[in-house]
Design brief:
InterPro entries: Hexapeptide_acetyltransf, Trimer_LpxA-like_sf. The chain is an alpha/beta fold. The chain has a single domain, classed as UDP N-Acetylglucosamine Acyltransferase, domain 1 (3 Solenoid).
């Protein structure tokens, strides 16, 4: 009698606990393992650059690259001349903007900078799409604002670009990166070496 009761108790699973299937059950033909996900075969020869509009002629692009590399980014150029050069190539730049040497701007015509902004040495503004920087923003040394990306699920790896907006009084610290589609809120600090993606919810 006691042996029968003991076997009955052992057969009843404890309340709140799920029964663990045996190895035989897991390997049963009725429970085949899920097939592996197919690997994406990248074919970069199919890349077309669709959806990316440079907005200026090749001659105008070449003129900017020559100016940036031969004059704009050089240490000997007085900082007060850099905003004027950007304006000449179509950028909107406010008053009292300080731009240090070794700064790189992909396309000035995709750039808007407010008043009293600081842009430190080695900052890279990769603005395939518009970058908007409001007043009193500090971009510290070697930080990067990157509006460009690619569709990782597309074999042709086509562009997946989006604008960036930096709110008033924000600070993007040294070697931080702000990615495509991100909005840095007014007064927000993006820490050094951090990566800031899309707006947080």
């Amino acid at each position: 009698m006691s042996e029968h009761v003991d076997q009955t108790i052992r057969a009843v699973p404890s309340p709140g606990r799920r029964a663990v299937p045996s190895l035989d059950a897991l390997l049963s033909p009725h429970n085949p393992p899920a097939p592996p996900r197919p690997l994406l075969v990248r074919d970069l020869s199919a890349f077309t650059g669709a959806g990316y509009d440079k907005k200026r002629s090749p001659l105008w692009q070449a003129a900017w690259f020559a100016t940036m590399n031969l004059v704009f980014s050089k240490w000997w150029l007085p900082a007060r001349f850099r905003p004027a050069i950007l304006r000449a190539f179509g950028a909107q730049v406010g008053e009292r903007v300080l731009i240090r040497h070794r700064v790189r701007v992909q396309w000035p015509w995709n750039l808007s900078i407010g008043d009293d902004c600081w842009i430190g040495e080695g900052v890279w503004l990769l603005n395939l799409e518009p970058i908007t920087i409001e007043d009193d923003v500090c971009l510290s040394q070697e930080s990067m604002l990157c509006t460009g990306s690619h569709r990782h699920d597309d074999p042709a790896f086509e562009f997946d670009n989006a604008p960036i907006h930096i709110g008033q009084g924000a600070w993007v610290a040294a070697r931080a990166t702000v990615l495509r589609g991100a909005t840095v809120d007014p007064g927000e600090v993006v820490p050094a070496h951090a990566v800031r993606s899309r707006r947080r919810r």
